[in-house]
């Protein structure tokens, strides 16, 4: 006999598990289905983000940053280290422990909020008078019926045509997080978030890293001034980034991977590396969902078609996160999950795409919210800009990291903040002030007149706001 629920969530990543918890908080009888497995075959809730994305990559970034600091910067502080070495196996073990803590934490949250968890693959079977029948394929097969269904099945790494992932030589984000030894030469195709972060990890540990990017500009989605500043820092670190390339045949052999490519001048080149990470985007994960069984509409990319409220083509079926339109960001998925749960309860859930922050966790970090200068120019919008370098910030000097700047863009007439862009230390944390300000439609003067603690990196935010009106105090 099938088990009846008010809400069934398919997928236990950031969008799914948050949607399930919020729906349970609102009084619904909720089930969540997720098929991720840990090394022992048990449940590994958290989706790509927790298992092979956001969380493990940040663990490796932190370990490699510590190693880099010890090897190149501790001496500046009077700390003398001899015999410095990196135990890659221990680093990976720590990463796995951090992942497990997050996996277990979500299971605890499900118990706390009375969300019923099913470990397996959820598939639409049919529509019925009671709602939608969902089959669970796993160690304990089951059949569930839900009045409402929220699809949060995430995305998968896009493979390079003719070069499928083997996770040994040609790596997706998954394999990139499990490299057991520092490769002498590492190649990356794609200079997006995953490529830059993984390239940074292994470059710090001693790899010669070459990044091949098809686009003629570096980080095209980032404000051009900020992207140029970041590129200068990466070049100085030894990260070799080739732009405007055309990748040809990729061959694997016993010693590694050979990539034929053409540079921006049309000259044929060959890149020989021990490992190749391919990070050319992600595709919605809808294969095996059973969309055809119930008539759920997908677009040409395989994404689920939704309206502005995350409603699909079917009544009482919703979809959130990477499997729908919009940026493939964990925090965007979480906000959509909360909003959908509240809409099911008759409330007015809301997600403002204009204030979704973006972060690249390299060193320097890159973070931004709102529009870039090139977008404002393209739209013909009159604006004012203000920048402030971390070089003139006392806390950054004390940290020993003065790379980068904070940049404000504000409406020329109203002074409303239209975008904030940061490259430098702790940009991921500093951007939150800008998100709050933009949600309240603050002006740059509002930030300029707020007292910021001294000495702090956040003073650079205040000074950049002051710079919009050409009245910085410390530069």
Automatic annotation (TrEMBL):
Q: Which cofactor does it need?
A: FAD
One GO biological-process annotation of the entry reads: 2-oxoglutarate metabolic process
Query: Which residue positions are annotated as catalytic?
Result: 454
Q: Which reaction does it catalyse?
A: N(6)-[(R)-dihydrolipoyl]-L-lysyl-[protein] + NAD(+) = N(6)-[(R)-lipoyl]-L-lysyl-[protein] + NADH + H(+)
Q: Any idea where the FAD/NAD(P)-binding domain is?
A: 5-337
Q: Which residues bind FAD?
A: 58, 122, 153-155, 322, 328-331
Alphabetically ordered keywords of this record: Cytoplasm, FAD, Flavoprotein, NAD, Nucleotide-binding, Oxidoreductase, Redox-active center
Q: Which domain of life is it from?
A: Bacteria
Cofactor note as given: Binds 1 FAD per subunit.
User: What is its subcellular localisation?
Assistant: Cytoplasm
**What name does this protein carry?**
Dihydrolipoyl dehydrogenase
Species name: Rhodoferax sediminis
């Amino acid at each position: 006999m099938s088990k009846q629920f008010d809400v069934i969530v398919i997928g236990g990543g950031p969008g799914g598990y948050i949607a399930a918890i919020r729906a349970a908080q609102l009084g619904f009888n909720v089930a969540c289905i997720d098929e991720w497995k840990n090394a022992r075959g048990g449940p590994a809730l958290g989706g790509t983000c927790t298992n092979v994305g956001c969380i493990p990559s940040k663990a490796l970034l932190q370990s490699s940053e510590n190693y880099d600091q010890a090897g190149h910067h501790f001496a500046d502080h009077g700390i003398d280290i001899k015999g410095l070495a990196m135990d890659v196996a221990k680093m990976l073990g720590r990463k796995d422990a951090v992942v497990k803590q997050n996996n277990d934490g979500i299971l605890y949250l499900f118990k706390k909020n009375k969300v019923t968890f099913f470990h397996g693959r959820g598939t639409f079977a049919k529509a019925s008078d009671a709602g939608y029948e969902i089959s669970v394929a796993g160690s304990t097969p089951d059949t569930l019926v839900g009045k409402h269904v929220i699809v949060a099945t995430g995305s998968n790494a896009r493979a390079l045509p003719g070069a499928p992932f083997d996770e040994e030589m040609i790596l997706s984000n998954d394999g990139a997080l499990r490299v057991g030894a520092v490769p002498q030469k590492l190649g990356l195709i794609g200079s997006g978030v995953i490529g830059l972060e993984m390239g940074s990890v292994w470059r710090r540990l001693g790899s010669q890293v070459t990044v091949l990017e098809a686009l003629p500009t570096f980080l095209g989605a980032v404000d051009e001034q900020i992207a140029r500043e970041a590129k200068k820092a990466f070049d100085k670190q030894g990260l070799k980034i080739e732009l405007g390339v055309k990748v040809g045949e990729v061959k694997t052999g016993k010693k590694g991977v050979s990539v034929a490519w053409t540079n921006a001048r049309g000259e044929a080149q060959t890149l020989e590396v021990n490992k190749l990470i391919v990070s050319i985007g992600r595709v919605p994960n809808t294969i095996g969902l059973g969309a055809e069984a119930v008539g759920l509409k997908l677009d040409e990319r395989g994404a689920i078609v939704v309206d502005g409220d995350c409603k699909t083509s079917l009544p009482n079926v919703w979809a959130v996160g990477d499997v729908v339109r919009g940026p493939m960001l964990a925090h965007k998925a979480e906000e959509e999950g909360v909003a959908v749960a509240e809409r099911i309860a008759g409330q007015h859930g809301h997600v403002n795409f204009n204030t979704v922050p973006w972060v690249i966790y390299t060193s320097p970090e890159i973070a931004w919210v709102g529009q870039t200068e090139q977008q404002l120019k393209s739209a013909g919008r009159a604006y004012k800009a203000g920048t402030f370098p971390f070089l003139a910030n006392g806390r950054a000097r004390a940290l020993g990291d003065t790379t980068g700047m904070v940049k404000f863009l504000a409406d020329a007439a109203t002074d409303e903040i239209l975008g904030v862009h940061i490259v430098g230390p702790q940009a991921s944390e500093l951007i939150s002030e800008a998100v709050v300000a933009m949600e309240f439609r603050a002006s740059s003067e509002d930030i300029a007149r707020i007292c910021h603690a001294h000495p702090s990196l956040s003073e650079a935010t205040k000074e950049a706001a002051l710079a919009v009106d050409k009245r910085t105090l410390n530069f």
